[in-house]
Write a structure and sequence with these properties.
binds zinc ion, binds adenosine-5'-diphosphate, Rossmann fold, alpha/beta
Length: 608
């Protein structure tokens, strides 16, 4: 077995994982874990949580048990660990008896350092005893927020983990989550009964993600345009309903973009197949409901588009956080309008628990405030998680001056006044008729052409007024009464605008400057490459695709993009030079080093 004795965490980081530096907090978590202390760590997605238990497992004797909620993820995690030379295995129900037998044997022979298991399995008779026999010396709980009812991914099976300290006293437990709220954190600490734990809460900023929010007009058109500008990159398009997922995927396909759908209504095999195709880069665009995400930890997703408003900021943060886990720049685009609110609320109405309904409504309100504001997106997002961002971020549409807020108080007053004067009995189209002075049959019949507001807005287009109406609704100044044929009703804050006690500003999108257009279409990935490196980078990627296919692994598991870019830029010629590139450890060097050296050599010699 491994005879790694003079192994400092820092050395193992390089020799096994191939990384020159720890990410923030990794080192202190690992050091604490190695002294046998309990640890709770809340790190953002992409913070590098897995390394925090994989690396100690490689150093310390015995077996580290990893509790992980999803079997689908487990296989990837085991594969990724193995590809780096960490002796990992998983035990779960989807294995054949033969496979399971092989794992048992390896465990008995103490050849496994890292064992992944779902919590259900831990509860099975005899599992705890066997773990002790196999020399279990540490436990890591991944996605620890699943233990908390306050989290948004509560899993009842996780609750049983509250007895873990009773079953295996004296075995240190490290718990990891990407959920930011204090309440969930407190709950995890209490449920797991961690003893004098070291508690780490990292900042939740994801500086690599660029945030942009737009009001939704022609979502399919906008999504298509966005995706077309980012060819060859992996991205997720979230839609809130299955029907919209199907529609969007079909629309993209019709326009020559290869996109696949993913939602809970598809047969298991199809879902699995589509997810696999996305993971292995056979398809770049996944159109999905929120059912897609937890089962995937693809690090090189470059954008996440929300075609509809998410239900809460937590969900928005989590879903956008799936982009850019590898630390390279990524984008988040949110499209929304007042119609989304009505749809979400319709679902809230069906919740039987009054408190839950109120909680959901509160979350939605905060989401709406965020989406409708004109402040730096990052600042307001982080503020929600009680974090402050020093100054404006410079990496969102507001900071980059793409969005301008304009005073629309007078127009809002005209519109609201038309609603009041017609008795809060009509929908947006009718109110727009009144404001624009359209002599329609309905207007004449009701005598509304006599109102003082009739025609006060004739100088603006119908489209403008409908958008304004939408904006007023989205910001909670009016709502549609679903029970009265969607009649528009003014809220208290709407009245304040009407009576001049509050101003109303709308968002105007200024023309994107040419330099920004360049930034958007030019992939962030290629920024650090010289034009002369591009062909080599393509050749390296092709080699990676081939090798990944042969090995039956996703390409990023062979080497991440960042590593291939370093190859293209630095052009290593020897094993030692390869090792100095980020992401190259000894195991990967041995497995794939010569293949990539050959690509570089051939390229330099001009043989394709
Ligand atoms: P999380 O589970 O916290 O979202 P992961 O453990 O999946 O994050 O890690 C995200 C990515 O970051 C992975 O591709 C991983 O290999 C990489 N990574 C982890 N630690 C480091 C490090 N110290 N330096 C560079 N890359 C790292
Ligand atoms: Zn900003």
């Amino acid at each position: 077995m491994l005879a790694m004795t003079c192994t400092s965490p820092k050395n193992v980081l390089k020799s096994v994982f191939g990384f020159p530096q720890f990410r923030p907090h990794q080192e202190s978590i690992i050091e604490a874990a190695l002294t046998g202390r309990d640890v709770f760590a809340a790190l953002p997605t992409g913070g590098g949580k897995s390394l925090c238990y994989q690396l100690p497992a490689k150093i310390r004797g015995g077996l580290t048990l990893v509790i992980s909620p999803l079997i689908a993820l487990m296989k990837d995690q085991v594969d990724a660990a193995l590809s780096m030379g960490v002796e990992a295995a998983g035990l779960h129900g989807a294995m054949t008896p033969d496979e399971r037998h092989a794992v048992y044997q390896a465990l008995e022979q103490k050849q496994v350092r890292l064992l992944y298991m779902a919590p259900e399995r831990l509860m099975l008779d005899g599992t705890i005893e066997r773990l002790k026999e196999w020399g279990c010396s540490a436990i890591a709980v991944d996605e620890a927020h699943c233990i908390s009812e306050w989290g948004h991914e509560f899993r009842p099976e996780y609750r049983q983990l509250s007895r873990i300290k009773e079953w295996m006293p004296n075995i240190p437990v490290t718990a990891f989550t990407a959920t930011a709220t204090q309440r969930v954190q407190d709950d995890i600490l209490e449920q797991l009964g961690l003893q004098n734990p070291m508690v780490i809460r990292a900042g939740f900023d994801r500086p690599e993600i660029h945030y942009r929010i737009e009001s939704k007009r022609d979502p399919l058109l906008r999504i298509t345009e966005f995706v077309k500008k980012r060819p060859h990159f992996s991205g997720i398009i979230y839609r809130s309903t299955r029907a919209d997922v199907e529609k969007t995927a079909a629309y993209l396909q019709d326009r020559g973009i290869f996109a696949l759908p993913y939602h809970a209504g598809l047969p298991d095999e199809v879902r699995q197949k589509n997810q696999e195709a996305f993971k292995t880069d056979q398809v770049n665009v996944m159109v999905a409901t929120v059912a897609f995400g937890m089962g995937i930890d693809k690090p090189d997703i470059r954008y996440v588009v929300h075609g509809d408003l998410p239900k809460s900021l937590e969900a928005y943060y989590q879903e956008t956080g799936r982009a850019g886990r590898d630390g390279d720049s990524a984008e988040a685009l949110l499209l929304w309008n007042a119609g989304d609110l009505a749809k979400i609320r319709y679902h809230f109405q069906r919740l039987s628990d009054v408190q839950e309904r109120e909680r959901s409504e509160q979350s939605l309100r905060r989401m709406t405030q965020f989406a409708g504001s004109f402040c730096c997106r990052r600042q307001s997002l982080l503020a929600h998680f009680d974090e402050t961002h020093p100054g404006e971020c410079g990496n969102c549409d507001v900071c980059q001056g793409e969005v301008e807020s304009v005073d629309a108080t007078v127009d809002a007053q005209k519109y609201l006044s038309a609603i009041i004067r017609t008795g809060e009995r009509y929908g947006a189209h009718y109110i727009v008729d009144v404001v624009r002075g359209t002599n329609s049959e309905n207007v004449l019949q009701r005598g509304h052409q006599e109102l003082p507001t009739f025609g006060v807005g004739a100088d603006s287009s119908r489209r403008y007024w409908l958008a304004l109406s939408d904006d007023l609704e989205a910001r909670g100044h009016l709502y549609r009464d679903e029970e009265r044929y969607k009649a528009l009703v003014i809220t208290n804050s709407g009245k304040e605008i009407l009576f001049g006690q509050q101003e109303f500003r709308t968002m105007k999108r200024s023309k994107v400057s040419p330099s920004q257009t360049k930034r958007l279409s030019l992939s962030a990935q290629e920024e650090d490459l010289q034009p002369g490196d591009m062909a080599l980078w393509e050749a390296l990627k092709n080699k990676r695709t081939d090798l990944a296919k042969e090995a039956g692994k996703p390409p990023y598991m062979v080497f991440p993009d960042r590593t291939l870019r370093a190859f293209a830029r630095l052009r290593p010629h020897t094993a030692t030079e390869l090792l100095s590139c980020p992401g190259v450890g000894e195991k990967k060097l041995a497995t794939w080093g010569t293949e990539f050296l050959a690509v570089i050599r051939d390229f330099e010699e001009g043989t394709p």
